[in-house]
């Protein structure tokens, strides 16, 4: 088979990739919290925002200084348990690693504000937050909390659900507004909106692409696609109108994150192949999606 690899090699590569993504995402998210979020007194939404809101409330109203790590890990305990039960053990394990690493990094990294302009803080902080989450998701992990909800719903509904989570985060931000004023809350909503849009644009797992493949190697390519992607392939026989040559058209739908590898595979089998990739608004029926485990 083309590009055949042993199962152990694939699993080891996935494990190393996941660990690297978790570490990089944790560092970016921690720096973002200590630079943009702290500078603008923002509440970034999710359980990260809930942890910061809890920490700030304890400090202001009860004069108790509790480390961020203790609050964040405690609040994420229940979502992590649910993640183990409903999403998957590997995904949740990597997510727990990110939660712990990010929590302690936030306590250790010194506050280093880049700017105090609230709009710049909201926009660029939101971009960094979204990028960190996308990197984590690429490594089959998450930052915990509401990310568990988003991933579960995305897998269940077969479509992106981050805007739904944005609605949940707005409730958290509203509570923060009543406690500490609505100006920072409104900027926090901008932060969360930007972050959500970055995730929607860059996280491609939930987006589908239709491939129309015109080739003379229909049987070979069709079989390879079935083995490589596990997606169904439909074969049509036809004739080219220009050279009157017999051709095969293969119709298949793949994840947007698979397109690059699939096209590379097809071109290896037929350098003269013609491929039309079309973004699919939605897919009804059975569609194989690789487990995030």
From TrEMBL:
The keyword Transmembrane helix applies. It is a multi-pass membrane protein. Pfam families: DUF2179, YitT_membrane. It is found in: Cell membrane. InterPro entries: DUF2179, N-reg_PII/ATP_PRibTrfase_C, UPF0750_membrane, YitT. Keywords: Cell membrane, Membrane, Transmembrane, Transmembrane helix. The chain crosses the membrane at residues 16-37, 66-84, 91-113, 119-141, 162-182. Residues 231-285 form the DUF2179 domain. Its main location: membrane. Signal peptide: none annotated. This is YitT family protein. It comes from Allocoprobacillus halotolerans.
């Amino acid at each position: 088979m083309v590009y055949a690899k042993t199962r152990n090699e694939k699993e080891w590569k996935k494990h190393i990739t996941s660990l690297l993504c978790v570490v990089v995402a944790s560092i970016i998210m921690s720096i973002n919290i200590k630079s943009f979020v702290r500078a603008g007194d923002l509440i970034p939404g999710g359980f990260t925002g809930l942890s910061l809101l809890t920490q700030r409330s304890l400090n202001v109203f009860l004069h108790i200084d509790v480390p961020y790590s203790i609050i964040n890990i405690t609040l994420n305990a229940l979502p992590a348990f649910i993640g183990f039960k409903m999403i998957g053990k590997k995904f949740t394990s990597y997510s727990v690693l990110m939660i712990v690493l990010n929590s302690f990094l936030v306590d250790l990294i010194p506050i280093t504000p880049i700017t105090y302009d609230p709009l710049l803080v909201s926009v660029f902080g939101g971009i960094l937050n979204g990028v960190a989450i996308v990197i984590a998701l690429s490594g089959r992990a998450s930052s915990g909390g509401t990310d568990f909800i988003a991933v579960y719903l995305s897998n269940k509904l077969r479509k992106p659900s981050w805007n739904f989570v944005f609605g949940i985060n707005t409730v958290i931000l509203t509570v923060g507004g009543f406690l500490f004023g609505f100006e920072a809350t409104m900027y926090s909503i901008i932060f969360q909106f930007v972050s959500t849009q970055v995730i929607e644009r860059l996280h491609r797992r939930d987006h589908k692409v239709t491939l129309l493949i015109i080739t003379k190697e229909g049987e070979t390519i069709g079989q390879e696609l079935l083995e490589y992607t596990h997606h169904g392939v439909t074969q049509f026989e036809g004739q080219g109108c220009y050279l009157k040559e017999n051709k095969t058209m293969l119709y298949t739908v793949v994840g947007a994150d698979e397109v690059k590898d699939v096209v590379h595979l097809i071109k290896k089998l037929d350098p003269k192949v013609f491929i039309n990739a079309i973004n699919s608004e939605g897919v009804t029926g059975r569609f194989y999606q690789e487990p995030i485990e």
